[in-house]
């Protein structure tokens, strides 16, 4: 049994949720970005997460029986969404037909992800303070008189 | 050496180990709240203890309890008590409830252990608080 | 004048058997031996809890409650042996002070 692996697990959760939050912020900030370095319209990013199962976790598993410990980011990749076409012939990025490609970001679903992520982040913080309380209580063994 | 603890202390120690393991499992469920295809896990331990802890006071048999505890410790070490839940997604609020419950159980165990050992200390020190 | 307080008891009476405290032959143990063994065991226990503290300091062991429980056990056992030692010393002093 290891008191500190609980912190590891929750910290990995915090890292992942923070990254998702950053991605949402990036997507929302670029809702009107029609050109990026390298050319083309901004493509919204999505974060793929998976249960962490590192070598260290495998070692821990021998002692604690947890096969996957925590969570990790598997990939950050452009989401597979079609750009939004807006008719605006005066726009410098308009194509021959007068249409401008805007990123296919749905602000509502980004906001939902934002709320969900915040909640998950808070839950991880609560798990850390619970782990902290457990560890501090264990230190009080024998001093209760 | 004189055995001051008895099998009760061993049982408490194992329960503390399990509480710690349960905390890790719940923390892992929370961390993986948005992992696609992740199935939440649960620790099933208390049902394995059934009968072992509830002996009549007159016939407390430390040896029998110790024997059972040895098997259980092995199970906990191997992680055989961690089971995949039948629920198909992580419910954050339910996990928070389980987390709180586990912390309270842990505190109760430590509190009881502390009271017990201060009673033993009192017996040793002829009724004085050491 | 001499008083023979046991003269009325017929010879051959086994008091231990009558009182029911007779122990099987060969099982008699010296209190000194017992205390010696307890102190030896206590020393061993203190050393093993010392080992645990070292492992904790070195970061090799992270099971806090195990370390704390071992320390508490060693502490209680230490107190117990100390009390036995105090009692023995007290008894010894009482014998020394005895007026002959």
Quick structural gist:
Chain A is α+β, with helices and mostly antiparallel strands and 145 residues long. Helix content of chain A is 47%, strand content 16%.
Element layout with pairings:
The complex is a heterotrimer of chains A (145), B (130) and C (100).
Chain A: H1 5-29, E1 45-51, H2 55-64, E2 71-78, E3 84-87, E4 99-102, H3 107-139
Antiparallel strand pairs in A: 1-2, 3-4
Helix pairs in contact in A: 1-3
Chain B: H1 6-31, E1 41-43, H2 46-49, H3 62-78, E2 82-84, H4 92-124
Chain C: H1 15-19, H2 31-57, H3 64-97
The H-and-E topology of chain C, N to C, reads as HHH
Distance between the termini of chain B: 21 Å
Structural class assignment of chain B = mainly alpha
Biggest sheet architecture of chain C? none
What gross morphology of chain B would you assign?
A: elongated
The tally of beta strands of chain C, per DSSP, is: 0
Please state the average pLDDT score of chain C.
80
Tell me which protein chains meet in the greatest interface and how many residues each side has: A-B, 43 and 45 residues
Judging from the principal axes of the Cα atoms, what is the shape of chain C? Answer: elongated
Share of helical residues of chain C: 55-70%
Order of helices and strands of chain B: HEHHEH
Distance between the termini of chain C: 19 Å
Counted by DSSP, the helix tally of chain B is: 4
Strand order of the largest sheet of chain B: 1-2
Largest sheet report of chain B: 2 strands, antiparallel
Mean pLDDT across every amino acid position of chain B: 83
Radius of gyration of chain B: 18 Å
Oligomer: heterotrimer
Which regions of chain B have little confidence, pLDDT < 50, spanning 5+ residues?
none
Number of strands of chain B: 2
The percent range for strand residues of chain C is: under 5%
């Amino acid at each position: 049994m290891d008191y500190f692996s609980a912190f590891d697990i929750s910290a990995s959760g915090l890292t992942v949720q923070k990254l998702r939050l950053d991605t949402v912020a990036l997507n929302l900030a670029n809702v009107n970005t029609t050109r990026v370095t390298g050319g083309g319209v901004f493509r919204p990013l999505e974060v793929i997460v998976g249960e962490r199962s590192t070598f260290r976790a495998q070692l821990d598993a021998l002692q604690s029986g947890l096969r996957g410990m925590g969570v990790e980011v598997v990939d950050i990749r452009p989401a597979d969404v079609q750009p939004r076409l807006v008719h605006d012939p005066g726009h410098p990025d308009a194509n021959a037909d007068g249409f401008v490609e805007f990123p296919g970001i749905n602000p509502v679903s980004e906001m939902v992800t934002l709320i969900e992520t915040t909640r998950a982040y808070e839950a991880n913080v609560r798990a850390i303070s619970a782990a902290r309380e457990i560890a501090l209580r264990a230190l009080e063994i024998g001093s209760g008189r | 050496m004189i055995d001051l603890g008895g099998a009760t202390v061993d049982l408490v120690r194992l329960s503390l180990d399990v509480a710690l393991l349960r905390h890790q499992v719940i923390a892992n469920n929370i961390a993986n709240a948005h992992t696609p295809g992740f199935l939440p896990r649960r620790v099933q331990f208390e049902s394995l203890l059934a009968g072992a802890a509830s002996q009549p006071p007159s016939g407390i048999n430390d040896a029998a309890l110790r024997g059972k505890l040895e098997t259980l410790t092995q199970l906990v070490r191997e992680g055989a008590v961690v089971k995949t839940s039948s629920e198909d997604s992580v419910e954050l609020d339910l996990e928070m409830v389980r987390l709180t419950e586990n912390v309270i159980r842990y505190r109760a165990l430590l509190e009881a252990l502390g009271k017990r050992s201060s009673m033993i200390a009192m017996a040793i020190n002829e009724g004085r608080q050491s | 004048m001499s008083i023979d307080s046991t003269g009325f008891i017929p010879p051959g009476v086994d008091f231990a058997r009558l009182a029911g405290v007779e122990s099987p032959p060969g099982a008699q143990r010296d209190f000194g031996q017992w205390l010696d063994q307890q102190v030896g065991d206590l020393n061993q226990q203190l050393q093993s809890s010392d080992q645990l503290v070292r492992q904790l300091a070195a970061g090799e062991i992270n099971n806090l409650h195990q370390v704390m429980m071992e320390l508490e056990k060693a502490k209680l056992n230490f107190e117990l042996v100390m009390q036995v030692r105090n009692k023995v010393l007290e008894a010894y002093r009482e014998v020394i002070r005895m007026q002959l």
